[in-house]
Specification:
307 residues, alpha/beta, Arc Repressor Mutant, subunit A, D-Maltodextrin-Binding Protein, domain 2, 2 domains, seven-stranded mixed beta sheet, two-stranded antiparallel ribbon
Length: 307
C-alpha cells in the first residue's frame, strides 16, 4: 500500500462519488476505480458498497477512513516540518559564547534572529574559547564565539568583533581615577588571569602585550570565568586585562581604564564545523554577518564625525 492509495481512498470516502473524487484528485475516473479495487484486493475487504445510484462506506471502509485521515494528517505535518527544517525555519541551534560576546554580538543579533526564525529553539553554553573549541570539534555545539586559536582543523571561522583591551582595577586603586594608563604601569601589580584551560588564546595575547612593554605579568590568581575575574578585582586582590565590553557585564566597584600604550585589542571569530549543513546554523550566521557589517558601518560614521 502506498500513500497515494490512501489519498485516493479518502477522497472517495469523503465524496461518496467516484466522479467528484476523480475531479478533486485531478485524475480520470476509470484509473481511480481501478486503484480502489486494487486496494480492496490487497486488504481482502470491501471498502465501499456500490449500487447504480449510490456509493457507501462499508464498516471496514469507515474504520479505514478514520485511520487514513489520521495517517495523512501526520504525513502532512511531517512534510511541513521537513520543509521548515530545510529553510532553517525550525530546529535547535546550540550556541557557545562568553559574557562579552553575549553583551555585544549576540545582544544585537539575537533579537533579529528570533524575530525572523521564531520556531528555532536556541540553547546556550557559557563557554570561553578553549571549551568552545572542544565542543565545536566534538559536535556538542553548532556555533561558537572565541578568540581564534592557532589551529582550527575542520572548522570555518569568520571575524565578528575587534575591541580594545582595558585594565580593570578596584575603585580604591591608586590608578582608578586615571583617564588612561600605560600597560607598563601595571608591571608590579598582581594579575588575575583566565586559565589556559578555558582561554588559552586570550591569555597568550595578554602575556604577549605585557612582554612587548618589557615585563612579565605577575599572574598570581587564575580563574575559569570572566565573572570570577571581576569579582576578584572587586575584592582588591589584583588587576586584570579584559575586553572593553566587560564593563557591560560587571561594573560594580570596578574601574575600567583604557590603555594608552600599546593600544591592545582582542579579536573574536564565529566558528562552526565545516561540514555542518544545518539551515538554521547558516541562517544564524547570515544574521551575525549582517549585524557585524552594521556595527562596522556605524563605527566608520562615528570616526568620520570625530575627524
Amino acid at each position: 500500500m502506498e500513500l497515494r492509495h490512501l489519498r485516493y481512498f479518502l477522497a472517495v470516502a469523503q465524496e461518496l462519488n467516484f466522479g467528484r473524487a476523480a475531479q478533486k484528485l485531478r485524475i480520470a475516473q476509470p484509473p481511480l476505480s481501478q486503484q480502489i479495487r486494487g486496494l480492496e484486493q490487497e486488504l481482502g475487504v470491501e471498502l465501499f458498497s456500490r449500487s447504480k445510484h449510490k456509493v457507501e462506506l462499508t464498516r471496514a471502509g469507515a474504520d479505514l477512513a478514520k485511520e487514513a485521515a489520521h495517517i495523512l494528517s501526520r504525513v502532512r505535518r511531517m512534510e511541513e516540518q521537513a520543509s521548515l527544517l530545510s529553510q532553517g525555519q525550525t530546529g535547535t541551534l546550540v550556541i557557545s559564547s562568553g559574557p562579552t560576546i553575549m553583551a555585544t554580538v549576540l545582544r544585537r543579533s539575537l533579537p533579529v534572529f528570533t524575530e525572523q526564525y521564531p520556531k528555532v529553539s536556541l540553547e546556550f553554553r557559557d563557554y570561553l574559547s578553549a571549551r568552545s573549541l572542544t565542543a565545536l570539534k566534538e559536535g556538542t555545539v553548532d556555533v561558537g564565539f572565541l578568540v581564534p586559536p592557532s589551529r582550527t582543523d575542520g572548522l570555518s571561522t569568520e571575524e565578528v568583533l575587534t575591541e580594545p583591551i582595558v585594565a580593570a582595577l578596584p575603585t580604591g586603586h591608586a590608578l582608578a581615577n586615571r583617564k588612561e594608563l600605560a600597560l607598563a604601569e601595571l608591571a608590579e601589580e598582581p594579575f588575575i588571569t583566565l586559565s589556559p584551560r578555558v582561554a588559552q588564546g586570550y591569555r597568550d595575547q595578554v602575556i604577549a602585550y605585557c612582554r612587548e612593554e618589557g615585563f612579565e605579568p605577575k599572574m598570581l590568581h587564575e580563574t575559569t570565568s570572566i565573572w570570577a575575574n571581576l569579582l576578584l578585582v572587586e575584592t582588591g586582590v589584583g588587576v586584570t586585562l579584559l575586553p572593553s565590553s566587560a564593563r557591560k557585564v560587571f561594573a560594580h566597584r570596578i574601574a575600567y581604564i583604557p590603555l594608552s600604550a600599546p593600544a591592545a585589542s582582542v579579536k573574536y571569530v564565529v566558528a562552526w564545523k565545516r561540514d555542518n549543513r544545518s539551515p538554521a546554523l547558516h541562517a544564524f550566521l547570515d544574521v551575525v554577518r549582517d549585524g557585524s557589517a552594521s556595527e562596522l558601518s556605524e563605527r566608520g560614521r562615528a570616526k568620520s564625525r570625530l575627524s
